[in-house]
């Protein structure tokens, strides 16, 4: 007898790479090889991470991103989250003023709240963080920013604003924590080089991750900054984690050196680009949405007109087996935002089309009040 199955849930969460595509066997082979080295299995005196991976990351950001760094200016962390937390520990005292983009990235805010900082939200628009608004804030100690693909809206900080931000940081002596979490995934036009590549005054702490190129579960990220700062992060890191997984770090260094990681990233970029196009096509059929197709990133940000209550829509969609993120969750104060983020990277084209159909079928419901703000 045929068995009735509930339709499978399609999660359009942003930022998660397609885990089915992770190159398991390449990683496993490199890891096996690394494990044969006794040196990676003991304690090490270096909390900055395996020297080969620091060297490989320094080379990668120099060649691909125009960021000049020596291996001594790199610390490998367990994902950017550790990089954020270590940097805050190194820079901040309770009560320090820290500016963040709003809308923005809650895990960074959580680390900030823990540090006792005073968080000041800075509005964003289609050109990224409003530097004119930032300039009005007094006694800023640190600015946390996602210039390449603003999180969650994916817009790029314009060249003019980048210059203004760097100049403001130099003049007012604050640090910039640049979270560059998905640099590789840019589809049209040229990627703009990170702020760190134009940082003549030494004000930028630059952070990257392998969570998007490889897999979040591997917990590999890095921070690049002047050596004394990196050494400070290493001392903080020693207290909580002593050292990273040096076997994994050596394995990944191998993958970078052999350009396996680059090959994988290029393959994923093609895959994600066509998924982006399929999702955009499916969502265009929804009149209540307005968006421009993102030229980078792993998610599409769409404004939702006031005929739909976006939070109620997200609930209805959940019942129909589609998960997406309503704008509210990216707001510091959890206020209603008539917009939503739809991730496309980890969903097949067929499922994206199906998700589009389900989203349309529940976009409006009789009796739903129009959003009031
Ligand atoms: C803004 C931002 N920063 C960083 C990350 C990556 O975090 P991690 O490297 O800790 O996995 C993400 C992933 O979703 C992100 O959206």
Q: TL;DR?
A:
This protein has helices at about 25-35, 50-65, 80-90, 105-115, 130-135, 160-170, 225-240, 245-255, 260-285, 310-320, 350-360; strands at about 10, 75, 95-100, 120-125, 130, 140-145, 175-180, 205-210, 220-225, 290, 300-305, 320-325, 325, 340-345. It is α/β, with parallel strands linked by helices and about 375 residues long.
Major beta-sheet overview: 8 strands, mixed
Spatial order of the strands forming the largest sheet: 2-9-8-7-6-3-4-5
User: Counting H and I runs of at least 4 residues, what is the number of helices?
Assistant: 11
| Rounded radius of gyration (Å) | 21 Å
* Structure classification: alpha/beta
Mean pLDDT: 94
Write the layout of secondary structure elements.
Blueprint: E1 10-11, H1 24-35, H2 51-65, E2 74-77, H3 79-91, E3 97-102, H4 106-115, E4 118-125, E5 128-129, H5 131-134, E6 140-145, H6 159-172, E7 175-179, E8 204-209, E9 221-224, H7 227-241, H8 246-257, H9 260-284, E10 289-290, E11 299-304, H10 310-319, E12 322-323, E13 325-326, E14 339-343, H11 349-361
Parallel strand pairs: 1-12, 3-4, 3-6, 6-7, 7-8
Antiparallel strand pairs: 2-9, 4-5, 8-9, 10-11, 11-14, 13-14
Helix pairs in contact: 1-8, 2-8, 3-4, 3-7, 9-11
The protein binds pyridoxal-5'-phosphate (PLP).
